[in-house]
Amino acid sequence: MSCSLKRFIPVITNNKHTLQAIIEKSLYSTATSSPNTIIVNGKEFETDSEKTNVPQNILKLTDKALHLKASHPIGILRTLIENKLNSDDHAFEVYNNFKPAVSVFENFDSLGFPKDHVGRSKSDTYYINKDHLLRTHTSAHEMFCFGNIQKKITDKPGYLISADVYRRDEIDKTHYPAFHQMEGARLWPKTEAGQKQLKKDISVLETKLNQIKNFTVIDMPYKEETNPKQKHMTKEEVQLVSTHLKRTIELIVAEVFNKKLASEGKTNEEIKSRWIEAYFPWTAPSWEIEVWWKGEWLELCGCGVVREQVLTNAGMGTNEKIGWAFGLGLDRVAMLLFDIPDIRLFWTDDQRFHEQFKENTISSFKPYSKYPGTIRDISFWVNNSIDIHENDLMEIVRNTAGDLVESVKLIDDFVHPKTGRRSLCYRINYQSMDRNITNEEINNLQDTVRANLVEQYKIELR
Ligand code: DAH
C-alpha cells in the first residue's frame, strides 16, 4: 500500500451549519435512523463523533453478499474451493453468513494485534463506533469458530468462512473498499493420537498432490531464527502441522489454476508456486504462498500455525489442540480466473455482466463495451498544521464519485525550496463501466471533490 500523505488529525468544526457538518451528516447518517445511530444489516448501532467514519455508500455494500450468489464469479470461486477442501473427509464446517459488523475485540484484540498496529487506525478501517467496525478480515471470526469446536457445537475439526471485508484503501483497478476473503482452519488434539491422525491426513493430501503432474512448488527448509515457532510446540508438531497446511493450500492452488487452464484448453501448461516467510500476529510460524502468473509472482494467501492465545481466547485449555489457519483473498483470484479487468465490475447491477457467468463454470468475461474515461488533475498545497492521509483523499473522491472513479494516482509531490511548503498533484481517472459520462457531470464531481478537500483539510488549491 503506498502512502504518500501521512497520518494526521482531521479538523472538526463546532459550527453545525458549516458545509463540513452537512457533508458529515450526509455521509454518516441514514434516512431510516436518527443522526446518532446507523443501521448495518438491519441492526442499529450508536455512532460516536470521535470514531464513526463509515459512509453511506459503504454501508450499502454490506447487504450485497456477492459470495452467496452461485453464478457470480466470487460465488463460483468460493464454491470451487469449498468443494475441493471438503471432497474427501468433510473436515470443514462452512460458515458463509457472518455479518460484517464485528467488535474491535473480535477483529483485532482476540488475534493479538498490538495496540498501535496501523490496521487499527481510522485512516485504514471503517469504524461504526469506538467498539465496532466493519471487519477488515475474515480472521475476525476465528475466535467464534474455534469456540464452536471447543463447545462441540460442530464435530468437524476445521472450518471455512467466506465473507465480505472492508478497508479504506487506494483506488485502482484491483482495489475496492469492499472485497472478499475465505478463512480456513483445522485443529488436532495435542496428543500422540492427534499426531498419528495428522500423519494419516498428510499422506492423503500427498497422494492427491502426486497425481497432479503440472504443478511445481518452491519451498525452503524451515528456519526458526527468522520464523519462530511457539514454545509450547515441539519441532515435530510444527513440522507436521505446517506440512498439512502447505499441502492443503497447494491443493487449492493447483485446483483453481488447473480449472483456469482447462477453461482455456491449456491443460499441459505448468503451474509454479512458491512459499515465503511472513508475519501475522495470530500465527507462528507464518507463510505466504505466491503463484507465477502472466510474468509475475502473485500473492495468494497468508497462513500459519495458530497461536495458542487465539485458542485459549476461544475457551480451549493450554496444550490441548494444535492446528493451522489461512486467509485467502477471493477477488483478485476471481479477476484472473474470469478475465475481469476492473474490480468495480463485481459490484455492478448491469445484467450484461451477470448473464455471462454460470454456476460451477469458469469462463472469460467479454467486455460489453469500453466507455471512454476522462482525466482531471487536482493540485494543492498541503496545510502543514493539518495532516492528511492518502486514504482520506481517496474517501472524499469515492464518496463524491462512487463507482465512476476508476483510479486515483499521485503524479507529483514536491517541496518548494524557498517556502518549504509541500505540493501534491493527484490524477483522477473518471470512467463508467456501464455508460457514457458527460464532461459537465464530471466537472461537477471534480468541483465537489475540490470543495470537500478545502473544507475538510484546509488545503490550498493551485
Ligand atoms: N487476515 C489476513 C489478511 O487479511 C490473512 C490471513 C493470514 C489469515 C494468515 C489467516 C492467517 O488466518 O493465518 O491479510
Structure, briefly:
By secondary structure, this protein is an alpha+beta fold.
Structure description:
With 462 residues, this protein is of the alpha+beta class. The chain contains twelve helices and 16 strands. Strand 14 and strand 15 form a beta hairpin. Helix 11 crosses helix 12. The longest helix has 29 residues. The N terminus is likely disordered. Bound molecules: 3,4-dihydroxyphenylalanine. The site of 3,4-dihydroxyphenylalanine has 11 residues, from strand 11 and strand 12.
List keywords for this structure.
alpha+beta, Alpha-Beta Plaits, binds 3,4-dihydroxyphenylalanine
Ligand types: 3,4-dihydroxyphenylalanine
Oligomer: single chain
Q: Whole-number radius of gyration?
A: 24 Å
CATH-scheme architecture of the largest domain:
2-Layer Sandwich
CATH homologous superfamily descriptor of the largest domain? Bira Bifunctional Protein, Domain 2
In CATH, the topology of the largest domain is named BirA Bifunctional Protein, domain 2
Task: Determine the number of helices (DSSP H or I, runs of at least 4 residues).
Answer: 12
Separation of termini? 27 Å
Q: Can you give the mean pLDDT?
A: 92
Uncertain runs: 1-34
- Overall outline: globular
CATH class identity of the largest domain: Alpha Beta
- How many structural domains are formed by the residues? 2
Number of strands: 16
N to C succession of SSEs: HEEHHEEHEHEEHEHEEEHEHHEHEEHE
Family: Belongs to the class-II aminoacyl-tRNA synthetase family.
Keywords: Aminoacyl-tRNA synthetase, ATP-binding, Ligase, Mitochondrion, Nucleotide-binding, Protein biosynthesis, Transit peptide
GO biological process, one term: phenylalanyl-tRNA aminoacylation
Catalytic activity: tRNA(Phe) + L-phenylalanine + ATP = L-phenylalanyl-tRNA(Phe) + AMP + diphosphate + H(+)
